[in-house]
User: Fold this.
Amino acid sequence: MTDATGVKKEPAWAKLRRRKVVQWGVAYAAGAWGFLQGLQYVSEAFGWPGQLRQVAILALLIGLPIVLVIAWYHGDRGEQRVTGTELAIITLLFLLGGAIFWRYERSMEAPPTAARAPAAPAAAASTLADARPSIAVLPFENRSDERKDAYFVDGIHDDILTQLSKVSALKVISRTSVEQFRKTSLPTKAIAAQLGVMSILEGGVQRAGDRVRINVQLIDTGTDAHLWAETYDRKLTAENIFAIQSEVSAAIAAALKATLTPAEEARTRVVPTRNLEAWEAYQLGKQRLARRTSRGLLDAETFFRKAIELDPSFAMAYAGLADSLALRVSYSETPIVHTLEQAQAAAGTAMQLDPGLAEAWASAGLIADYREQTDLAERMYRRAIELNPNDAMAFKWYGKLLVYASRMDEGQRALERAASLDPLSAIVHLNLAEALELQGRFAEAASHQRRAIEIDPSMPGPYSDLGYLTAYALNRFADAVPLVRRTLELDPEGPGWAWGLASLYLDLGDDSKTFATAEQAARRWPDSWGIQQMLATIDQARHDTAGTVRHAERSLALYPRNPGALRMLRNADLQAGRPEVSLARYQKTYPELFVPGAPRLDGLNYGVAIDLAVVLHQRGDTARAEVLLDAATRAIGKLPRLGAGGYGITDVQIHALRGETTRALAALREAATAGWRGPYWGYARDLDPSLASIRNDPEFKKVFAGIEHDMARQRAELAARQKDAALDFAPAR
Assistant:
């Protein structure tokens, strides 16, 4: 191509390429994209605010034209004229880069409040798949003069919500999520968008003497039109309260064109108790139960027992009692056998009194779950969901069961269903985080844990879970310790938080804080299986065999399937030349590992199988040991290496037991390089009999020397941050 003077013209695209404008533009876009991806990961890991990404994107957008101009001038000094075609191409590059950045920013955005949770895409999918009419029952307004009537108003609200949740033709948002909108100034459309519903029920309750007035109105969130409204003015009796709830449920179902099944119609007419005082005690128990603290669960148990005393035929109170007892096993570490026996008796009574009570079946599932009776727990959970397809807690418990049974996809779906029904539940976010962590998706898991803290800053569990992930998945112990310390500030009566903190100090190598934390905790909670296990661990590190056995036996008596206590007693037996004693203990405690053929291993028992394989090797039963090792190898194939629930150096143990020294050392090096630091890495270095064949190898010692050096660095970092740290938890009052 030539111009009017006959001079050959260079094509615009070639000219831009010669001046390296195209190359610079493409390189800039690619580099910016990679930078933003890295920034996203780091922001999630460190909890940096979202505004930082927005500032970075703005800076990159501003920088693009500057880079292109510099490229033009740098490419060919003295030839600065730009033709119209060249300008169009430069503009196109600019728009292309801007579109990439805009698309990235849109992918990072989320709707306000609840939808900021990382689970939003999954929850949204579940919501879209659910074509049922959907409703959220917002907290009712207390229109009484007395503040003490607030719990009464909340009880009315909770019962109406519960009644509606048992209508299978409706999707009903759980109480935990709607509670976030108490005294809100948001318009109904904004609330509906966050909860994913098409209608909202608002109401108010006024209690005066022996009269109660309840006003309710159903709003179409798309049009703000009132679909239905009613005022109930009745004498204050239990029968009238339940009658009002039944009438409201039927009216709402009719307004939303949802058909009740005959069984559901019958359930709406059930009067759970005719004792108003018992009903009030039950409501107080439910409200305390929702707090999920050691004190809250103890108070809940007291109120449920009072309700039962006032009305021994009150099935729902027995189900509440079963929940409060079962949950205390994990939150308060009460003696497992005795506590679960009491919980089972309460759940059984509830089912006898009301076989169609979904809450009772869910309670029975939780009890079986704690007993590691997976098949029974699954049947119970599924029955609870059949009876109440809107029971977010049943879906949550069921999902967690499936995840630990290594049925990740099914568990994830159940948890997403729970999130759809209860999108603003801190507990549901915690369980979603747990499932993601067990898939090695640590950044997503941490986001859910931080979201749980945002939803309920007073709940201790999210701080603990985020702390353990930070330590054992990200190898940042100095950041993890303050998080776990926070749990003791929020729930000073929870022994689990104390021994969790002691375990972090143990892995940091801070012996003085480990001992001080454990000994203080032992004085406060002598009957905590976790504290007794920690004391046994400390004695084991001190090579105090008698102390180790004493505390491990105490821990095992409180928690008969405690793998850590079993392991320490096994070591003592093997040292004393008594493998048959250890074998008998495993036969009694984990009989499923002795079934013919390969046992069914999952995320809860694969480590026990390896511990048992050590005993079998010493007794010469290598064939059965190999069966267990093969099953354990398959089980860890579904788990990540890092994290509190990761398989850690299980593969190293398996290779070492099989005499595969080269593979064992390579796997150990891989684990250490990836950031594996335990839990209890010192035990692996010094005492684990499964690693005896490689313990004296120079490579083994070199790896652990590196870990020890890293922990000394992190110990110094923590000390620099907390020079004047107070006691790890307040003394008992």
